């Protein structure tokens, strides 16, 4: 199926090639991956130009085959034991005060990669006490032990995306379970009531307004604090098609609804992604 032409509100300035090259060189030199590159994020130019990135740990090959995602699928290699140290080095060279760490899903690992998350977060906290860390985790197959391991490593923000409405899970997010994702967020708050929890939704996959609002209600019942809502973009002709481009004014309505529901902060617009301007969202919520 052919991809649909982007509407005018997706136009962005081209990033400085020199800045982009420098950032790629730093990451490649440390054998690090970013979700910005792997997921073909439309905001990569803005983020790399600002000297920020969302680090992708546990390699760049995912064991699941979600039809919305551009990340490579297949059989991942062994875990890079030096990855946490390399990530710390990149954070120090970039002078970051807010770090977002995500990963591919690693169903091949007994703990789903939770120990690598915990090692990375702990290393950052030990070497930069004032740094803020946000983790964006897979579902760990609902393992309480894995979730607890990551929470107790000390991130300030614990993010897990529900991605879409329950009706579309088999079509879009095969291998995941909507109820398990909600339970994960609820469990995080139960383990540490002070931690900030966060989730995200993509629009344009075929969901209805009523379904989106119902998911927002479910997230609030799971004590989710922060919410991001953005437009799904089809990575290739082989991926799930864009059913609809949601106009900016509808995104603004969801932002209003979310705040009225009690979310500490909501970021909702076509180009919003899970970690886009994550520090700003967290700061607004704290204020």
Give the key terms:
287 residues, alpha/beta, TIM Barrel, eight-stranded mixed β-sheet, two-stranded parallel sheet, 11 helices, 10 strands, 39% helix
Strand content: 5-15%
Give the N-terminus to C-terminus distance in angstroms.
45 Å
Provide the CATH superfamily.
Aldolase class I
Helix content: 25-40%
Mind explaining what this structure looks like?
The structure is a single chain. The chain has helices at 17-29, 35-38, 44-49, 83-94, 114-127, 144-151, 169-172, 178-191, 209-221, 248-261, 278-286, and strands spanning 33-34, 54-57, 61-62, 72-73, 98-103, 132-136, 157-159, 196-203, 226-231, 265-268. With 287 residues, the chain is α/β, with parallel strands linked by helices. Helix 9 (209-221) packs parallel to helix 10. The protein is globular, with a radius of gyration of 18 Å.
